[in-house]
Amino acid sequence: MNQKYPSALLEDAVNEFSRLPGIGRKTALRLVLHLLRQETTVSENFGNAIIRLCRDVKYCSVCHNISDTEICSICGDNERDDTTVCVVENVKEVMVVENTRQFRGLYHVLGGIISPMDGIGPADLQIESLVERVKSGTVKEIILALSTTMEGDTTNFYIFRKLAPYPVKISIIARGVSIGDEIEYTDEITLGRSIVNRTLFTDAFKV
Predict the structure, then answer these.
(1) Cα–Cα distance, 35 to 19 (Å, whole number)
(2) Cα angle 132, 135, 138; round to 5
């Protein structure tokens, strides 16, 4: 049975909140009612933050990380090692790896992983821009830090084949991250050790 709302404005707000992943209509209603109980400025600040995010956020022209400027703070940090690039699936993984404090290189955000079942192919990801970074000659090592799932391994192998013609070391995080695990949910100590103890891609997969 459809929920009856005393206000069309309330229903519209619930509809919008329920579009968010993991938010059902009951949770959406609870969130909306919570906002209604706050001072008007609280809701205004909330709404303005979302508007500013969607309007003003940028993606780094080098690594595709979320940024406030054309080049993100990581790529713009002269103290980072620009010869080593850690390849991750999404922006969330950049934050996870940074929290380990075990990596001082740069990143490359693919924007996903190859998943034919979801209609995601290599052309939908930032793989060609990774190849271009390697072509420039500055990058000496690529660390593949994708989820240890079938899709992650497929993407790893595709990237390895694309970069094979170039003189760059290709490593993969140590399998302290269990098969089937997603990087986002791996604890920081395990992930940090996996990066430090990374191995050559060819050794890990016997290519």
Answers:
(1) 17
(2) 105
Instruction: Report helix angle 40-56 to 25-37, nearest 10.
Output: 120
Q: What single-letter DSSP state applies at residue 201?
A: H
Judge whether 33 and 26 are in contact, CB under 8 Å.
no
Helix and strand numbers (H, E) in the chain are 8, 7
In a domain? residue 177? yes
Shared domain for 19 and 117, answered yes or no, is no
Cα–Cα dist 136/117, whole Å: 34
Specify if 98 maps to a domain: yes
For 38-75, write each residue's pLDDT tens digit.
999 999 999 999 999 999 999 999 999 999 999 999 99
Residue with tokens 């190849």: 131
Output DSSP code: residue 20.
Answer: S
Domain count within the chain: 2
Residue 53: partners with Cβ closer than 8 Å, 6 or more residues away:
none
Edge-to-edge strands, sheet with 81-88: 105-109, 81-88, 141-144, 169-172, 199-200
Count of CB atoms situated within 10 Å of the CB of 133: 20
The CATH number covering residue 12 comes to 1.10.8.420
Q: Which of 195, 197, 194, 187 is nearest to 96 (CA)?
A: 187
Q: Which two tokens stand for residue 112?
A: 């996903």
pLDDT at 147: 84
What pTM did the predictor assign?
A: 0.80
Region for 64 from its dihedrals, namely left if φ exceeds 0, alpha if ψ lies in -120 to 50, beta otherwise: left
End-to-end, the C-alpha distance of the chain in Å comes to 56
